[in-house]
Amino acid sequence: xxxxxxxxxxxxxxxxxxxxxxxxxxxxxxxxxxxxxxxxxxxxxxxxxxxxxxxxxxxxxxxxxxxxxxxxxxxxxxxxxxxxxxxxxxxxxxxxxxxxxxxxxxxxxxxxxxxxxxxxxxxxxxxxxxxxxxxxxxxxxxxxxxxxxxxxxxxxxxxxxxxxxxxxxxxxxxxxxxxxxxxxxxxxxxxxxxxxxxxxxxxxxxxxxx
Length: 210
Prior knowledge:
Helices cover about 65% and strands about 15% of the residues. The protein is α+β, with helices and mostly antiparallel strands.
């Protein structure tokens, strides 16, 4: 009798163990079966949702900035623009001032040229016997001093005699016959011309060979 009880107990234990194993197996297979059992439309919707999420992550709109930070950036940009505009205005104003100053300077220097002409005429009119005299020597020193100061300011004489006639620098007022120079060459200078830096202060008045 005890033997029969033991057999019955063993059978029950085996059945319980088998039932537990079946439950574990069923639990492991359920996710796979559910995934396989899903309808095609559901699977498609999930796939589309995944693609949309990816697109949003890659190409979606950036997270909106803090309104305060946007205001700060806007003000910084405005300040930088105003600084750039002011710098351009300053450079333009400095350039205009320099041009106005140079124009005024050239006008003053141009008015001094007749004085230079008179010095040259006066020195040329001094008799040969008096050229070594104190008066002529003093006049010559003043003339040289004046020409040195003009040169320091950027005033230089224009080369004329022996040069090819150039209307940019020379003003032809007559034709001069010359066996020394070819046609179109300045043979005589009637009034000396001057440059102020790169600008013609006064054209040379010349005679040109025909």
